[in-house]
Design brief:
Strands 1, 4, 5, 6, 8, 9, 10, 11 and 12 form a 9-stranded mixed sheet that branches. The protein has a 6-stranded antiparallel sheet with strand order 15-17-16-19-14-18, covered by helices on one side. A 4-stranded antiparallel sheet has the order 3-2-21-7. The chain is an alpha+beta fold and 382 residues long. The protein has 11 helices and 21 strands. It has 3 domains: 173 residues, no CATH class; 64 residues, no CATH class; 100 residues.
Length: 382
């Protein structure tokens, strides 16, 4: 057994369906608040446990996160007794198939702080992170003492071997089979001690892992010194990277003002019809008006949008409240002035940046499909 990839010592697997709205723990705060405002969603649901400071009751009394964690922990213990059953010393082979790809992998515990003999981390981030988000999630993980969702980690090499090893380990019917609101089918098996599990863990631990989704979760676990994070380690076979756009909200900016600001710093701006956004370009949508901009090349599109188009030209903080990362297909936030649409980043570019020791800009890669939050919980108090 390795010291940086290990089974789940103590966990809980859902008996039927995850209690509460089908909104992932790490959706943006606006979507979480909206979901928790639905009748019956603010109590007795996993989402309320994950976001206790975003329930209507907490917001109405302006309760900060730290003041809500004790209640959240008690609610989690109740859910573990009523909606879950305990499991021990297991890993969980996992399959998810849907309209946005398919993945076969294994849910297990991974130490985000582990380093190899060369001093290089075995778990390597693919994107930069927002420090305040890391701090909040570290507080939640520490306060709950339980991982309620999994990061998505991808081996940088040896992916075919991992997929084959998981296929060999899957026997019989899954202990969980469910379809989420987007039409993805999630299936989960449990694998206890024995040579099959040992072989599977060895394959998982054979190569460094890139964080495809969950950079903030992994950073939070490391910051909190928890010694492990729940992760789905997978190589696909059909992982995809979707587009990650930027919404500008609450500024009052219009197309004419933005056009003038971008042209003032030397960017070519032209009006045009709707169309596919290609790498090296960005389209700004102001209702029916669309502005097309060619970005400097060679470049990482999201980095140029944040530093040049937003910060330098429009004097907006890319981390501030007026700039909202927006995965492709999501509805616009309230009070949206415009949406900056960017092309999906090719996996080859992500891997090249990763191989060079760099990180992509924050919220620039949207890997799918993701594991469903709440199917398997993992104790973090070893």
């Amino acid at each position: 057994m390795t010291d940086w990839v290990r089974p789940i010592d103590r966990g809980w697997v859902v008996r039927a369906e995850v209690p509460g709205p089908d909104v992932d723990e790490f959706a943006d705060a606006t979507r979480v608040v909206a979901a928790l405002s639905r009748p019956g969603a603010a109590t007795g649901t996993l989402l309320a446990v994950q976001h206790p400071h975003r329930t209507p009751a907490a917001l109405s009394r302006d309760r900060p996160l730290l003041d809500t964690l004790a209640d959240a922990r008690r609610a989690l213990r109740t859910l573990q007794r009523t909606a879950y059953r305990p499991v021990a010393d297991v890993v969980a082979p996992y399959r998810v198939d849907g309209p946005d790809g398919s993945a076969t992998g294994v849910l297990c515990m991974v130490n985000p702080a582990a380093v190899g003999a060369d001093g290089v981390s075995w778990v390597r981030h693919s994107e930069q992170v927002y420090p305040e988000v890391v701090a909040e999630r570290a507080t939640v993980l520490t306060g709950l003492g339980c991982a309620t969702s999994a990061a998505l980690l991808v081996p940088v090499t040896g992916g075919d071997s991992l997929t084959a090893a998981v296929d060999r380990a899957i026997v019989g019917d899954p202990v969980v089979s469910t379809v989420d609101s987007s039409g993805r089918r999630h299936r989960l098996w449990l694998l206890g001690p024995g040579p099959v599990r040992d072989a599977l863990v060895s394959v998982v631990a054979a190569n460094p892992l890139m964080v495809a989704d969950g950079n903030h979760r992994v950073a939070a676990a490391a910051a909190a010194d928890l010694g492990g994070i729940l992760a789905l380690v997978t190589a696909g076979p059909d992982l995809r990277i979707g587009a990650y756009h930027r919404a500008i909200t609450g500024t009052g900016l219009d197309a004419a003002t933005v056009t003038a600001a971008w042209r003032a710093i030397g960017l070519p701006v032209r009006e045009g019809l709707p169309g596919t956004v290609t790498p090296g370009t960005v389209t700004a949508e102001f209702g029916d008006v669309r502005l097309h901009v060619d970005l400097p090349s060679p470049t990482i599109d999201h980095a140029v949008v944040e530093t040049l188009l937003l910060h330098e030209a429009l004097h907006l903080d890319p981390e501030g409240p007026h700039v909202i990362p927006l995965p492709d297909g999501r509805p616009h936030p309230a009070n949206t002035d415009c949406v900056l649409r960017l092309a999906p980043i090719p996996l080859t570019q992500v891997l090249a940046v990763h191989a060079a020791g760099g990180r992509m800009p924050r919220k620039s890669t949207y890997f799918t499909p993701k594991p469903r939050s709440g199917l398997l919980l993992a104790d973090l108090e070893r």
